[in-house]
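Researcher: Last one for today. Full complex below.
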Amino acid sequence: MSVASRKAFDERVERALGDEMLQEVIAEGQDYMQALVEPARAEAEWAAAVDQIARIRAHTLAHLDRYVDQFATNVEERGGHVFFAADAAEARRYVSDLAQRQRAKLIVKSKSMVTEEIELNSALEAIGAKVVETDLGEFIVQMAHERPFHIVAPAIHKSLEQIRQLFSAAAGRQLEADARALTDYAQGVLREQFFAADMGISGCNFGVAATGSVVLVTNEGNGRMTTTLPRTHVVVMGVERLVPTIEDLEPILRVLPRAGAGERITAYVTAITGPRRDDEADGPREMHVVIVDNGRSRMLGGKYEKILMCIRCGACLDVCPVYRKIGGHAYDSVYPGPIGAVLSPLLDGLQCHPELPFASSLCGACTEVCPARIPLAEYIRELREDSVGNGPGPLAWRLGFQAFAAAAARPRLWAAAEAVALPFLRLMSAGGALLNGRGPLAAWTRSRDFPRAEGTSFRALWRRGQDRRGP
Amino acid sequence: MITCLGDALFARVGVATVQVLRNLGVAVDFPAAQTCCGQPAYNAGYRDAARDTARAFLRAFAGSESVVSISGSCAAMVREGFPDLFAGCPEEAAAAELAARTYEFSEFLVDVLGVRELPVSRHARVALHHSCHTRRLLGVVEQPVRLVQMVDGLEYIPLANAEQCCGFGGTFAVKMPRISTAMVDEKVDRILETGADLLVGLDMSCLMNIEGRLRRRGHAVEVRHLAEVLAAGWRA
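Model: Here's the assembly. Have a good evening.
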């Protein structure tokens, strides 16, 4: 952890902790989600579906090359174009070249985390296109010039009043602080954009290898508008987001809305197979599928492979006690929360996110709820091994643990050290010196009392009691 | 298993544990060669230091029949961490055997000894902190609740958001002290809401964190390991 990056991280944390309204909004959001999701998780079919999902995802990853080929062939057979982007730059270039070639002035987008990951919007804006996010949450964060706060609920951190202010500024008139009125405003604005747009860009929840279908799981209807009204539809998807067959979607579509939003099903589940055919009344004339690797294939076969099983439901964010305090922006990564603490260092390199593996109490709530059975907390711990094993690392910690291990393997030395240290600790704590401690204890005692030391170890009591009847 | 933290700072918990086990007719030994299970180094990412520590721990408990831990997370380290730490090492089999006979205190009482009633009295409104590793890694959730409910005079008040971490997290508490404090503050709020005058737990590390924050905020809620409550209230 470099000093500068740690300082920046701490500042982001302070900003979140100091924002009382934000603290309330996040906690309310998590509690609300928990109340919805917990009953679904308790259903008998949940565990079976989750096992099935883990099996399907693992199988797909084990044969990913085959399924990618099959998917691409089927997309092309249905008249779509496929482009493999090795990294974010290649993906951006393909889409912006396409937009330029087609003189696309207005581009509408439905929600997509991978386009956030490759920073597509700024690339398109750089060539003079106007990009409009049409998912209500994304629409709000785009207006606020922010990143999504949550992978499923991008604007969950915004209060009604904040949204009213944003919308009012954009509308040039004062809007009512009423959810219906604000949604009506957004709908009105977005409807015009859908009809005028030259290009629609969507993500892809799942690609079906056997059919070449792109499946979108949405709630607002904007996904269908984005993918059917403009002349050209561009799909941007992570290379791992495939399932072998339509049937494999069944458990996933059952669990994804439950895990992510406590819903039995989303309002829309859309499967798009190729562009408009000659006998069809609507749909785009052209369909381009951009398959993004950007570090994913590097993880195949490695110890972190299971992170590619993620179905992006956001369940780990909704239970994480650290996310509850620091929110989505403190992570300073496209993917926040436990999934981000693992995925971002793996995609971008640990050096880009040195704090993230340590921003966890390893409580295991994420691992417990993950419907793809990704060992998130275990991965966070592994990433710590990778962090301290590479580069100079924090020398004091390393030496400390080495010394600790050396003493721990020598019980006599250990007992002797205790016999010296504990009475001293007791004296210090009796004098109150530990309450506002300096040095290594300060991080504890700045906010917490140190326990009143008893001054004697259990082992000493045990030894003393041996000749009687134990301690 | 008294754990390094329990040995150095909370000898009274070890004494209480021995007392309760003896009261229940269990022959108790304390292998003096035990120090630490290696969890602090393991969770901080120092695998080699963790393995060295864990190896000494394996040796210390080699001859024991059952190992009872006063800390859920140290028991979880032996059960979940050791198999990973020693995978492919000569100690692999010994680690698996130790994992299979290691128990958290409340788990041992309810699941192994089959305790269904206790001659224990104590008058208090009690809240229970489950600790994340006890709950999620050991799957021990109901056992402490049942034990608390066996005590005459204890009024058990469930905590809201009980499954939420108290913010201790080992080195997390000092590496990320501001986040850790925000987390324990919420835990303290939930405890105060219950009106409990006694908080009982199964892990001194979490309890040290919660008690430290309670005291700093000026609250007198008594904080005890479950073994202490059982030992103190035992009717002779």
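Chain B touches chain A through 72 residues (CB under 8 Å). The two ends of chain B are 26 Å apart (CA to CA).
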